[in-house]
Amino acid sequence: MASRLYTWARWATRRRGRVIAVWLLLLAVVGGLGITLHGKVTTDFTVPGIESQRAQDLLKDKFPQAAGGTVRVVFAAPKGTELTGSGPENAVRASLKKAAGVGGVVRVTDPVETRTISPDERIGYADVLFKDPAPDVPQSAKDSLSDAMTAARQAGVEVEFGGSAMQPKTEVGGPAEIVGVVVAFAVLALALGSLIVAGLPLLTALVGVAVGVLGVQFVSRFVEMTGTATVLALMIGLAVGIDYALFIISRHREQLADPEQEVEDSIARAVATAGSAVVFAGATVIIALAALAVTGIPFLTVMGLAAAATVLIAVLVAVSLVPAALALFGERLRPRRRRDKDRTRDSWAMAWARAVTRKPVIVLVVGVIGLLALAVPARELRLGLPSFASQPADSTEHKSYDLLTEGFGPGFNATLSAIVDTAAIPGAERESTLTHLHTALAAEPGVATVSAPVTNPAHTVAVMAVVPKTGPDAQATTDLVHRLRDTAPDIAKTGGTLYIAGSTAAGIDVSGKLSGALPLFVAIVVILALLLLAVAFRSLLVPVKAALGFLLSVAASLGATVWVFQQGHLSGLLDIPSAGPVTSFLPVLLIGVLFGLAMDYEVFLVSRMREHHEHTGDAADAVVHGVAASGRVVSAAALIMAAVFGGFVFNHDPIIKSIGFALAFGVAVDAFVVRMTLVPAAMALLGRHAWRLPRALRALLPHVDIEGAKLPARSTPRRTDTETADIETTDANEFDQQQHPTIAR
Fold it and tell me: What is the pTM (predicted TM-score) of this model?
């Protein structure tokens, strides 16, 4: 691998103008398509085959009037007054009459007529039903609905909006995300020692992430995807794009510290060595993200593939655009002062490596116990989809949630739908069957009220609203859904089919589906880690150690996420309006993403150890030298990723917020605790046994050179422009034939 990348990089540096032009052209074409022909993203996390989705499909087919999106308009009279007073009541009716004329609205209920008013008559609600499903209700219609409430507002009535059609869209690009990029730039400046050089990895990463994200937006025209997919692609693409460029540029400048090192040869060697690690590490991220397809959940599959495509582009940028840009800068990137060859022996990384390898057993015991302590809260992990209580406190969705809770109890926001397919029940028995079911549901512990059955015109489908006593995020509500579904066999005996659906039930179903897929996904990821690292380092103990460290990182990150988002700690600092279950697909996503990123640091760190071991055969010194040579860059890369992910913690979307926190915390723990501390300690403890591979496996595993052991000897003389032009054609032919270039000495 290293030899091929060396040849490729020599070609790219000499064709730098063409390479840069191709990337700019690609950015223009993909950008134009993504901006002008993008599709519409959805806010629905649907999963085919789950009970709530089957119920929704039944309503669309046989009861379309009940399948459309709903905006629940919540009215609250000033404290001390009543909504049924002549002034507020008339104003509300005038507003609802105007709402009935909004495009797409098929029905508007009256809170006075339907008695959907709180016992103190201060809070009430009206349901505005649209003909389109909730994700398809246009923003223009919701804006018109808000304008229709002017009369109510002028009468002093507070008006807020909730309901299935009011799921907010995921947005990025706020100040918090920009702060993350600024922090990344500062870290780059410190790591590379130059503001100008620091801008290079940021610039190339932005080109790659722009191509990736805009490409994903164009694909959304043909494939249904959630807004979270685009944000995840942006989040991961930006982080890995900066890191991959950093690894190559840092290696290039390290080599240029030798005044005899030729620039073009240094670029090629940096791409061959650090670039090999980039390609290998990027492949692990791509495979891990693509492996989300094994969950069998379409929205998660699309999310993983979108992020994987962006990472692929980041890798291509790192091994093509980055060397071309380095060649463009040429001698200007050479450090001003020659570095002492023994500088690493006095560096903090060298001191740290010696410290953690001096007493490896103690370091391992303390580190593992600390990570397990962080993981303890994960034992109480509950999965779900965020309710409106998780939206920002000043949002209309959150305010409507609070008003409904105040007026009708916490369970009102968790209203379930009992949907009965009565087509196979004899006509004479349908009414009695529904009456019996209504009585059984109302008698169930945990149920506050059950509405009267509403049937479609053909009397083949009936719907009843079931209001729990507890909120949508409560474990008691989840238990209630399972108990209600236990009554399905009684309906089946009459020939009917009972479904318990609604947004709360859908969240429970999605969480159950993901929980079932999690063990298989973890097994695939761990086996993949063992296989890839065995190929990379031709060792068995190195992959086992890496996989165990990865599992500790995931456990610690999940524990911290539960402690913050589910148990409510640090909610004020992180602007979390309400504690609730962890987003249902976060554990799967965290495992896939963190696996790839953890393998990044493992490859970069251990490859430098192996590189030294290949040259000296000294296992103990290889560990110290590997940490000393790569510790600064790995630490900078981890800080950059944590900063980029951390910027998304302050996004208003509760899903993006929790993903950003989990990834930022996971990357920091994995890089600084596992890779920079536990890995050197474990490698020191294993000694020369770490690099052993059974003879039977040596012939089976391919030999992948990621350390550059087979590269040609270094060329030191600097060529003139005339000499460069004379050999340009020769090198191009050598690349086409995939031969090693002959380096003139």
Answer: 0.82
